[in-house]
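Example record used in the benchmark description.
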Amino acid sequence: MAVGKDNTEIVKARIDKRDYRRIVLGNSLQALLISDPDTDKCAASMSVGVGYFSDPAGLEGLAHFLEHMLFYASEKYPVEDSYSKYISEHGGSTNAFTSSENTNYFFDVNTDGFEEALDRFSQFFTKPLMSADATMREIKAVDSENQKNLLSDGWRMNQLQKHLTAEDHPYHKFSTGNWDTLEVRPKAKGIDTRNELIKFHEEKYSANLMHLVVYTNESLDKAQNLVEEKFQDIRNTNLDYFRTSDQPCKSDHLQIVVRTVPIKQGHKLRIVWPVTPEILHYMEGPSRYLAHLIGHEGEGSLYYILKKLGWATSLSAGESDLSLDFSFFKVVIDLTDAGHEHMQDIVGLLFKYIELLQQSGVCKWIFEELSAVCETKFHYQDKIPPSDYVVNIASNMQYYPPKDWLVGSSLPSKFSPSVIQMVLDQLSPNNVRIFWESKSFEGHTDKVEPWYGTAYSIEKITASTIQGWVLSAPNENVHLPAPNKFIPTDLSLKIAPEKQVKFPVLLSRSSYSALWYKPDTLFSTPKAYVKINFNCPYAGNSPEAEILTHIFTQLLMDYLNDNAYYAQVAGLYYSISHTDGGFQVNLLGYNHKLRILLETIVEEIATFRVKTERFSVIKETVTKEYQNFKYQQPYQQAMYYCSLILQDQTWPWVEQLEVLPALQAEDLAKFVPAMLSRTFLECYIAGNIESQEAEAMIAHIEDVLFKCSKPLCQPLFPSQHLTNRVVKLESGINYFYPSECLNPNEENSALVHYIQVGRDDFKLNAKLQLFALVAKQPTFHQLRSVEQLGYITVLMQRNDCGVRGLQFIIQSTVKAPGSIQERVEAFLKMFETKLNEMTIEEFKSNVNALIDMKLEKHKNLREESTFFWREVNDGTLRFDRRDFEIEELRKLTLQELIDFFNEYVKVGAPRKRTLSVRVHGKLHSSEYKSEASEPHLARIDNIFGFRKSQSLYGSFKGLTGQMKL
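Model output (structure tokens):
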């Protein structure tokens, strides 16, 4: 039974109406109970204070492997994968992750399935079954997960930083494990991995190291009874948390420059210092204070200077590798080609800025401003999905006292110059580690990191060397940021929640714009969401136009950054991005000063001029972005080809890359006025903004762009309104598009097997969505757990501008794409039997789960706005879609679901329309070369020839040009 409730007052946000209670069970397991009567989903997260730091020597990845294995089966629920099946059938999802000092397991589920889901979940920690057969299969899944990461620069550089530390320190370890560490090497030493796995669970998983968070719609008392009943049997062996008194970096690992060769194009500097973990001083927030200043992007900042010199395209700063015993402060800078040539100057300027911080002393006003921003952010935080929320809190529980479990380190409130000064003093030339990445080092390195094969070389440097770099760096005027004028001071709510408005309304329409408006009557936060789509027919009419539009949006962001960065710091976010038919401006955050930012952006568009030196930098960045396309994962390449085949009027990245080198600043200078000359604004404004204010915002944009003495924009002609048309595949023909992976070193292959169902229709959607729900978990179980085709194995719905379908996405090293397709078809034949054997009860249970998912309320303004914007952007405008789809689901019969399968999905179905995109990695390149057109398959050799020869579905979009209010 519980030792008892804890009366600790848990600090929570002002607008948070949920109830919280901490309890400690008799076995010393600590739990936080959260009661939210309004929630549609329940969730739980268990953080176990054991991570890969605890892996035994010679069994790298054992903690991570155990995380995989606990999902399979338990003594109480011995059917393999029945836990995941139950969660899926009750509208939920489940996952886990392993970090250095803990392993986190979590799930969410519809409210009616929570009690049983929690019971199944609790068995992970009481009596799991780890069968020999499942153990062998899941080692392959861990190996496949590792294969996926081998060509990822993030994973490679992270491991290299760990590799260059003391070999006897746990930070040095390889965390994920692979076939070699979990099968080959243990076997050679006569070690049975399964026995070690069972031993690890028994010896390391103790209840006193566990923190559970439970999120439910029930009362706290009911939640407490549930937790006591389900989790009291977990064994408590009174273990201590894994701690290490040593630091990972000895003197050999400090004062070094490491040159390393990445996979992708581009140059990067990572400057790293071991520092005192902020977690020990989270109220004082030393690393947060220093990250705010070193990572600032406003005028006078380090980034501002590097950008002005044309040396950097991004800079971030902050603490990483959270631990109670050690941590690192990192500054990461993306360099231009010119910046790469000035590495020493850049490091010199960084230390010059650190010297400025030393000379200025710790500023009280900066700390107080930062503290105020953090306080507003905490107290007006959006609700997030329960599964994310419980994971965040469970992760905090190991490190913070109970009163701060919800807060963590997000509320620095104690001004302590000495603590900040202590960490600032650690950012010295004496203990710096510089990691310098560039393709230009290829062939000039002499060492290889063993787990990922990253090539590198090391050079020792001294503090005086760095001092020399500081003295020879350009004499630029770095200074501290100005007070932030974007910090909101009016957080009042303008719209009364009783004025329930369920859907957006078309507030105004002219030949210049259409404005959809949705006031916030649900979330009661002082925030707004604004999206303005500039529909410009000339923006997407050629590969050159598309590239120039992209460069234009990047330049706009670049010009705005010096001032608008302050808005981002204050919680007002913005972005400008190119779309298929133009570009869009997005704003999200506190509404108080949102209009100032919007007007600043519009003014920048209206007065846009090309600055030649910035054009060159952005062009270089965009070129690398396109060159790096070939390093995407094979499944991402397959999805890209699938979109290129299906979506009319899209240009391939290779053509854009081809035209890029010739484009000059004057091309953009001529292009932008031409692009903007015909424009229609599609606008969506939602949140804590009144209707007349929304109309005034759009009227202002129209005045600046359309109605001034020399207007930049003219309305579109009716014939110019943009459409979004999708290829209609022919029935009874199985199309396939084979290609080689663009990265010749990639071992993984991928298949996207797409089944096209049809145009947006409530009844058809309901059948498709129900089938996807019913088949999702069996697909994963058969193709991933049983057949072990690969770590990435997904069945999901696809929606191209209102044309619906299904897609199987599988990435694999063990089978070629053609063989994977055979396994997908074998699965569909097996699933046909299962579907025909489905009972009415099972059918109804799945229907109810899907209805519950559709009845789920949006958690926050961003989620709601994204849902409604999709309707505007696709042109479907069915804001009430959920209501109608639920109505169709209630009427649906099991026979209708079977008929749907027989008509659209079943192998050989007469009306079936399929497209398989096969990307071959280097292990399967011979299959690519021998891949001929098979009797039942139609091979696509030329995407654009194919696209032109096919019928197209009608467009939902573009009809608005003729609409009358």
